[in-house]
Amino acid sequence: MRVGREQHHEELREWVRGGAEGGGGCLTVEGEPGAGRTAFVREALAQAAALGCRVRYAAADALAVDLPLRAVLDCVHPAGPARAAVVGLLREAEAATEPGGALLAAMDLLTARVEEWCAQRPLLLVLDDAHWADAASLLLWRRLAGTAAAGRLPLMLAATRRPLPRRPGAERLCAAVGGRTVRLEPLTAAESAELVRDLVGAPPGPRLREAAEQAGGNPRLLRELLAQWSGLVRVEAGCAELSVPVAELPPPPASLGRGLDWLSGPARTTLRHAALLGPAFTAHELALVQARPARELLADLEEPLLAGLLEDTGDLLRFRHPALRRVLSAETPGALRGALHQDAARAFSEAGLDPARTAGQLVRAGRLSPWAVRWLADAAPALIAAAPGAAAELLERAIAQGDPREPRTREALEEQLADAALMLRRPESAGLLEALRARTTDPDRRAAVDFKLVSALMIQGDMARSLDVTERALAEEFPSAAWRLRLEACRVLALADLHRAAEAFALAGPLVARARRLADPLCAAEAHHALSYALFHLGRGRDSLHQVAEGIVCARRSPAANDMRLLLLANRAEGHMRFDEPEIVAAALREARELAAATGSTGRLVVTEARLAEFHYRLGDWDEALSAVARACGLPVSDGWLPVVVHGLRALVLGHRGEREAAQAELAGLPDDAFATPGARRYASHVQLARALLAERDGRPADALRALRPGPADGAEAAEDLVSYERPWVLSEIVRLALESGESGTAREAVAACGRIAAALPDHPGPALALLRCRGLFAQDPELLAEAVLLGERGGWPLMLGHTLEDLAVARAWHGDLARSRSALTRAVAAYEDLGARWDVARADARLRSLGVRRGSRSARRRPANGWEALTPAELKVALLVAQGRSNPEIASALFLSRRTVQTHVSHILAKLQVRSRAAVAAQAAARASGAPGP
After folding, report:
1. Element (H, E) at 55
2. How far, in Å, CA of 731 to CA of 746, rounded?
3. Which residues does 650 contact at the CB level (< 8 Å), separation at least 6?
4. Helix (H, G, I), strand (E, B) or coil at 557
């Protein structure tokens, strides 16, 4: 199994070649059960035999651990007269009062045979599962290792071992052997996907990749799971995908549990209890379940921690193999599991743990006990804020099994369920709130329900109905001035979204003054939000952002305004992204993400992650964009636009990277009704661009062009909707494809549409850049396209810059300026290569090749291997921050990257600059800035 082990295999081949040339040496291969230790050393056996070496192999046996020399004897003499001679000495030693002499004689016989073989040709001895080897075998192995290390014999010794069992004598002897040690680490997610591809014959789709994570990077476990799922894997269009959602996969086979038989009884029992707590847990929670002090857990947890079954993440212990956790949980009978979950929930509640942890146990417990229903009624508000998904599931269960004799409890639970559904942004939240309003008589309370109902309708994109509900609510009398102002702010939002921006603006201005008089931070924040939205729809972007900033200041004054603060921060990030101001965008998203996590605002967190994904995509940090999309996808919300964002952005990145089958699988994963709501259609540009990219790649330009046109369901204004900020760039792609397809009329219409959007947003650089590109493409005007390149360079969005440079190269070639065309093409390809956009490189080369322009030899355009010119744009940004003395966590925060990504960049920077310290990077940066030669 070579996946993920290429470097190790190369080192192994080098080691064997050296031994075959008479070098000798020792090798120890370590890894968890199923990591591939045996396959690894069998490759060494095959290579050594092919090079003319004598090879011998044996595996130590747990049942023979007390039989002296059994492991080495099986390796050197598996059969024959020589084995009989050694066995005779061992029997003599067993019968003797002082067995040392006979045992040493047996060792000498084995050593003599090894020396005899080495005198003839190099020898490779492999001892598999050395953790089970007897003490005498390990002692002899150590003696042979000393001979091999000294170079006195052409002898290679390779042993494999796993972390457990830990036998003190064996540990010391293995450590004394010395030589090389190879640790077979768990496969990464990418390596697991590669192994899946090798086993099923096609790259895995999103579902299959997600399911493969259950193996925790263990190759054998992954093979066994794939064997179980074989009937559920379909290979279509070059992609392997599960025919059912991951949640509907059958439970892992109980046979996987046999791989844990080496665990001691107490350790396995403790793991079974831990498995009931979920994928991750604290030592305190496990102690509560087992009703004993935490200090007593240490001995039972030592084995699973050493074996890598559990990971210590600092605050939590986490199961590394989700499939094994499910097997361990299933070992407890179902009825008993439910009772244990109920007991754990009660213990957690009485200990004052986070309500989300208590709810996690009740979700798995089945029918709720009377105590559980009472706890839920009391804890629901806090639980909805922290874990709305679990809250909704438990509330639905409690209502379904509720006591008809307690109508008040049922009504309270139904109201809380409506709040949970709204937090989860579920479509049914509107119906629940309508029903709740119908039985609410208190005027202020009904106004509050109306406000929630309007929010639910706006989340669904139904602005017309939300305006109707708002007008109905405002027509009623209720004492609260705050609720009236907040509902009037909702009316402004609805009017602006319904293309009545002037009317909305007229109503919004007075709201800010009234909110100031109320001295209510939440009302003030909502009034500024309403005014900012009206200004945005009037095309006054800077004025809109000023009101957003004022609203954030107001919202920071009160925790009650946290939700509005999160919304305003998301709007601030989106607004400044439109003005190409990434530092402000990063700061807003950072604040939003921290606040959403701290307050448990799942709905706002998913919006933040989606904005973050878009931000990283535009910056060219595509791996970070995919990570943000994965985080958004993992949150328990039901926004209709989320699948469009998730599948669209993934497909677009994969398409640009040349991974055609995986991109097609992402698009195929879109639900049939993906674009049913206005909100989903608003985020359609990535899906459109991905579909067009794949069609163009397949040689279907007409289909590519069709994919970018708005559909009939999009409405008359869809092509020029100011909210769809990506639309101008889509229009520029329509111009390019239409001209290449000979549809000049379509191209002319797209240029005009882009011009209208740019005129409506005169201070936004994005539409201006798209319009320059549209006009430059339509006229094949190098001057216009060169101006677009300058604007693209200021914007800092590398993919747009690459496209514009590519278009400039084409235009110059059309005008016969081949030298400058080649220069623009080279810059475009450099931008694409930094992104990993292999398809764009191929398209650019093909477009210019037909015009007689080629980039020349690859060596001429390859990035230097060392020095500052060798750094990618992402590495350069990190290097400059390192030079400022920033730590990795500070850099991660400033650039919105993971710490692991920053560490990888720093490692690459040190290697490329050929320095060993961050101080040396700073010195080179200072010298470079001053123009002096660096060290």
Report:
1. strand 54-59
2. 10
3. 206, 626, 629, 663, 666
4. coil
Per-residue model confidence (pLDDT) at position 395 = 93
Per residue, the 3-state secondary structure of 314-330, as one string, reads CCCEEECCHHHHHHHHH
Q: What share of the chain is helix, strand, coil (3-state, %, to 5)?
A: 70, 5, 25
Dihedral class, residue 267 (left if φ above 0, else alpha if ψ from -120 to 50, else beta): alpha
Distance CA 5, CA 184 (A): 8
Look up residue 385 and give its amino acid. A
Q: Is the peptide bond preceding residue 279 cis, with omega within 30 degrees of 0?
A: no
Asked if 848 and 810 touch (Cβ cutoff 8 Å), the reply is: yes
Vertex 740 angle, CA 738 and 741, to 5°: 60
- With H, G, I as helix, E, B as strand and everything else as coil, classify residue 127: strand
**Cβ atoms within 10 A of the Cβ of 716, count?**
7
List alpha helices for 676-764, DSSP H: 678-682, 685-697, 701-708, 727-740, 744-760
**DSSP run (H or E) holding 57:** strand 54-59
- The H or E element spanning position 160 is strand 155-161
The token pair that represents 601 in the structure block: 């605002």
Distance, in Å, from the CA atom of 922 to the CA atom of 885, rounded to the nearest integer, reads 8
User: What are the Cα distances from residue 258, in Å, to 261, 264, 324?
Assistant: 5, 13, 10
Residue 591 has pLDDT above 90, yes or no: yes
CA–CA–CA angle 88, 92, 97 (5° rounding):
170
CA-nearest of 488, 427, 434 to 459 is 427
Radius of gyration of the chain (CA): 34
For residue 411, what pLDDT band results from cuts at 50, 70 and 90?
A: confident
CA distances from 222 to 3, 32, 35, 110, 322 (A): 13, 14, 10, 40, 11
Side chain identity at residue 236, one-letter code: E
User: Rounded to two decimals, what is the model's pTM?
Assistant: 0.67
Angle between helix 265-276 and 322-330 (nearest 10): 100
Q: Is the dihedral of CA 546, 549, 550, 551 positive or negative?
A: positive
What's the DSSP call for residue 254? G
Question: Is residue 182 a contact partner of residue 51, using CB atoms and an 8 Å limit?
Answer: no
List the helix and strand counts (H, then E) for the chain.
47, 10
Residue 610 above 80 pLDDT?
yes
Q: Is 917 left (phi over 0), alpha (psi -120 to 50) or beta?
A: beta
Burial state string for 349-386 with b = 16 or more CB within 10 A and e = fewer than 16: beeebebbbbbbbbbbbeebeeebbebbbebbeebbbb
As a whole number of angstroms, the distance between CA 817 and CA 786 comes to 13
Q: What is the three-class DSSP state of 109?
A: helix
Cα–Cα distances (Å) from 744 to 246, 671, 730, 738, 779, in that order, read: 47, 34, 16, 6, 11
Q: What is the pLDDT of residues 851-870, one digit of tens each?
A: 999 886 543 445 566 788 77
- From residue 243, alpha-carbon distances to 309, 427, 642 in Å are 30, 26, 22
Pairing mode of beta strands 239-242, 233-236: antiparallel
Torsion of CA 261, 265, 267, 268, to 10 degrees: 50
Contact (CB, 8 A) for 242 and 225: no
User: What is d(CA 573, CA 549) in angstroms, rounded to the nearest whole number?
Assistant: 11
Find the DSSP H helices in 387-520.
388-400, 407-423, 429-438, 443-459, 463-474, 481-497, 501-518
Closest CA to 530 of 522, 216, 166: 522
Instruction: Tell me which amino acid residue 897 is.
Output: L
Name which of 215-229, 410-424, 446-460, 775-789 the model is least confident about: 410-424
Report how far Cα 28 is from the mean position of its chain's Cα atoms: 34
Round to whole Å and give the CA distance between 105 and 125. 20
Distance CA 168, CA 417 (A): 57
Contact between 521 and 557 (Cβ < 8 Å): yes
Nearest residue to 511 (alpha-carbon basis) of 526, 499, 494: 526
The phi, psi pair for 602, rounded to 5°, reads -65, -40
